[in-house]
Amino acid sequence: MSTLLPAKSLLIALGVVGVLGTWGRTALDGSTELLTKVLDDPNGQLPGTQVPLQRTFTGIRIPIDHIISTLVVFWYEVVDGSHPSSTAVALYFLGQLLPCLVIAYTNAQRGSKSSLVRPTLWLTLFQVCSLGVTGWIWALSYITSAPTVPKSKVSAVGSFDLLQRASRVSSPALVKQLLVPAIILGYLVPAALMGVFSSNPASTAHQSAIGAWNMYPLLILPMLYILRSIFSPAVATTGPRAHLHAIRAANIPTLIISVALHWSVLGVSLSTILFPSIFTPAYREELHPSAVFVPPLALSPATTPGDGVKGFLLWDELIAYLVVLVVVALELQGAWSTIPSRGGAFRWSWFLPAAFGASLLLGPGTMCLLISWLRDEILFGEWVDRKEGTKAAE
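^ that's the sequence the OP posted. Answer follows.
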């Protein structure tokens, strides 16, 4: 009997909510119409400015440059400081998406069919259409086809070695030495440049930086190839120890960055409650935790394209983290079930509260990476007696 039916049903439901919460909301509040007007106007200007919208980025007008121009209009008011709450939400999303990128690229290196192109294509689709709209499609495809996700209730006998082989990264050196630097160069650096160039909105560099960051998957991929050709990481053993060292080397700096951004945004937001006098009334309202972390239900008519971006991002975030959580939770359940644990069977009754608590303390993206990491520790860590296929006695 398949164990995936509840998960698949949940993913489809998340997809419906994702569509309604993102593009559905922006269509109803009028922000999509305002964005379209800027794009359709040959003399279209960036919202709130007299700066002409840049139309050429790659020279391929349809569809690439048109997509990038759309994303520039969408993100411009997030970066320019006119919507502080949207800026805070975007900064938080930036930090919490980072662990999800590490999960995506690491998982694509597992097993015998490793690929750098596959996660790049999926991430590009997410960036163009939003994770809230398309993430469930990836998750549904992944849990259906990935050998690391249990498809039925099977005996643990003989399944441990199979799952370990399917979970082992094919290139530990790439994951250990190159993955995080490539993501920093292709994802975090363009994000920083968006802020640096925001002081001169009329510059071509500002719009180019926004466009470059929105195409970050297409920057990370060549960065990986370039770094691999320059540094030529030595071929390492593909045993359990090499795998676990690679996972830890990629996860630790990622967790440090994502947790730092989580606490930074959370700290500023909580300060509006703890130290309200240091904020102006407008900033106190814009940066309040309910404005930065809670997806809105009410609809207010948009006067600029940026008015609908905050709600879009908050719903996009929520659905994205839940979709990734479904995937990593099923993989953890699969790893747990292969080992006769002294703690008993995998229990959703303790897993979900623990995941929720970790999400509040460290951030939802960080929580997903920790779950994925725990799976690797179960399958490859020293606390497992591989000879017997059981947890080692303390």
